[in-house]
């Protein structure tokens, strides 16, 4: 069995599958469509913050930097950042979806001819061989993707980033706790794009693993869990059913649910405390006027000389 087959099999038994499996080419396209939905405020709020504070980021990052983007999608956000920098030397987008990465890296290389664009296909939570830095290495982790990790995992991941970014810094986007109805709407858009994104997990299993998920027999469910400060996405079985792939059978009762994603929301203070536990100095945070989304400038603590 491949990585996806093995993890999906274990996940279906445990009723919880990692959200990283959403992102094949179809899932990446659906995610980009989510970002355009009026209910999904994070993307446009973060873009506006990046645009508004671009001169500050340019000053903090300094000239001749290398930008390492974790989970680079369409690279729209990093363009705002690159445009604010003085003579950036290199851009290293890291993404699990190789095809998607190649296309967006090629477009970026065309538009920034003096920038060395070095795409790296891989899982930044697993083994990743980073090239030697071409300049001061600054990590960029937008979109509140950190929220898709359990807090203990998020801390581990940030600690790992702190090691990679020694001598540099990290600019990270983090979604904030807010009125639950706004959160509910963002993950239940009227056009059903988030539902299609969620269901793409099983559609992908049908395409790649020859699984026989009946996509009409599963419902998208997304809700805010206030004590845990997270959105949970699930796929809920509409009836008793069996699903098979690669010779293995899985049984579901009506109402059984498979947890497919958590999206944690933080307060500014709560996130800064997490970053400090992970070995960063939380130097500065920017939030929009409605306090929906935040950007944080974090500097690895062993690295006191950095600004
Ligand atoms: C990528 N990640 C930060 C998105 C989020 O909001 O948690 C993924 C997503 N899931 C449903 N809508 C968007």
Could you describe the 3D structure shown?
37% of the residues lie in helices and 25% in strands. By secondary structure, the protein is an alpha/beta fold. The structure holds N,N-dimethyl-L-histidine. The site of N,N-dimethyl-L-histidine (AVI) has 11 residues, from α9 and β11.
Helicity range:
25-40%
Order of helices and strands: HHHHEHEHEEEHEHHEEEEEHEE
Radius of gyration: 20 Å
Strand content range? 25-35%
> What are the bound molecules?
N,N-dimethyl-L-histidine
Cα(first) to Cα(last) distance is: 47 Å
How would the global form be characterised?
Answer: globular
Number of helices: 10
- As an assembly, this protein is single chain
Number of strands: 13
Structural class assignment: alpha/beta
Largest sheet: 8 strands, mixed
Mean pLDDT rating: 94
Q: Residue ranges: pLDDT <50 for 5 or more in a row?
A: none
Could you give a short description of this structure?
By secondary structure, this protein is an alpha/beta fold. The chain has helices spanning 3-14, 25-35, 41-52, 54-61, 76-84, 98-111, 151-164, 180-186, 193-209, 268-277, and strands at 66-70, 90-95, 116-117, 120-121, 137-141, 169-175, 218-225, 230-237, 241-245, 248-252, 257-264, 280-287, 293-300. It contains ten helices and 13 strands.
């Amino acid at each position: 069995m491949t990585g996806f087959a093995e993890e999906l099999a274990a996940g279906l038994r445990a009723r919880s599958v990692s959200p990283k499996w959403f992102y094949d080419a179809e899932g990446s396209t659906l995610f980009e469509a989510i970002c355009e939905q009026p209910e999904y405020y994070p993307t446009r709020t973060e873009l506006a913050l990046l645009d508004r504070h671009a001169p500050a980021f340019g000053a903090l990052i300094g000239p001749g930097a290398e930008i390492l983007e974790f989970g680079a999608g369409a690279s729209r956000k990093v363009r705002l950042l690159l445009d604010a920098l003085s003579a950036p030397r290199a851009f290293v987008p890291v993404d699990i979806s190789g095809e998607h990465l190649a296309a967006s890296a090629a477009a970026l290389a065309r538009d920034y001819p003096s920038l060395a664009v070095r795409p790296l296909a891989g899982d930044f939570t697993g083994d990743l061989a980073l090239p030697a830095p071409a300049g001061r290495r600054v990590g960029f982790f937008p979109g509140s993707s950190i929220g898709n990790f359990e807090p203990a995992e998020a801390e581990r991941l940030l600690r790992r980033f702190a090691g990679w970014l020694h001598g540099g810094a990290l600019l990270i986007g983090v979604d904030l706790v807010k009125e639950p109805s706004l959160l509910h709407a963002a993950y239940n858009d009227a056009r059903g794009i988030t539902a299609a994104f969620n269901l793409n997990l099983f559609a992908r299993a049908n395409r790649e693993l020859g699984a026989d998920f009946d996509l009409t027999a599963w419902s998208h469910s997304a809700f805010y869990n206030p004590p845990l400060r997270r959105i949970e996405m699930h796929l809920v079985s509409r009836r008793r059913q069996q699903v098979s792939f690669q010779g293995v059978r899985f049984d579901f009762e009506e109402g059984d649910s498979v947890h497919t994603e958590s999206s944690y929301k933080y307060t500014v203070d709560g996130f800064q405390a997490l970053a400090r536990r992970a070995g960063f100095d939380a130097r500065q945070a920017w939030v929009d006027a409605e306090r929906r989304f935040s950007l944080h400038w974090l500097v690895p603590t062993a690295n006191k000389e950095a600004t």
